Amino acid sequence: MDITQGECIQVLKQLQDGSVSATITDPPYNLGAFMQGRAHNLGNMRENNFVDAGWDNAPADEWEVLMGELFTELSRVTRKGGALVVFMAAIKVETVVRLAQAAGFYYKTTGVWHKTNPMPRNMNLHYINSTESWIYFINQAKTGTFLNEGRALHDHIESGVTPASEKRHGKHPTQKPLAVMRHFIETLTNPGDTVLDPFAGSGSTLVAAAELGRIPLGIELDAAYCDLINARLQAAQPPLTETA
């Protein structure tokens, strides 16, 4: 396993061509400044929420340039036929598809993660926000690894939000549950494959990859979150092995 502290695009430039099997990541949605002018009660319900934290406030045109550079590097470091899954706000999906396709990724589908127990924020103002979009691509090919074992897999994933048991080493304001990351890793990669998350955050992608016998490769800008990731990886259960 390898966790690197630094700015993701600069670190990606140091990786070898085709060295990654799949990327599963949750980048900034570029909604901080947009949400500041809207009615919300996030500050009363979640510490370090993305609206007030200051790390999601880039101008839209600047964000697009950075995302374009990100996808260019991801296409280079990902093997042909490797998967890319990007979590994203619904209003940004078209932009992400356009930028990723320009970098060489083939668009497969857009799905949703439905949270069965979302925060009831704004419940007396409008519908509760209980879904996040995810976008699935294949690098420089139209098909890739898809281990569905003959089952019909829908583009709709359901789970609870991240449980307290997964935050015992620390928490991140946009932390994803291991169950969601396991779903993609089990379906889109094989044991021994390298799974990258260039916005590692709390490390959920990497912990799920390690527990499933994949090689986790993470990049995270914040040193405190790098420490959190290492603590979670050290406590992660090793992959199951067959016994004679």
The structural class is alpha/beta
Q: End-to-end span in angstroms?
A: 27 Å
Going by CATH, the architecture would be 3-Layer(aba) Sandwich
Shape: globular
Helix content: 25-40%
Total number of beta strands: 8
What characterizes the major β-sheet? 8 strands, mixed
The number of distinct helices, counting runs of at least 4 residues, comes to 9
Question: Describe it for me?
Answer:
The protein is of the alpha/beta class. It has a single domain (2-235), classed as Rossmann fold (3-Layer(aba) Sandwich), CATH 3.40.50.150. Helices cover 32% and strands 23% of the residues. The chain has nine helices and eight strands. The chain has an eight-stranded mixed sheet. Helix 5 packs across helix 6 (93-102) and helix 7 (178-188) crosses helix 8. The protein is globular, with a radius of gyration of 17 Å. The two termini are 27 Å apart. The model has no long low-confidence stretch (mean pLDDT 89).
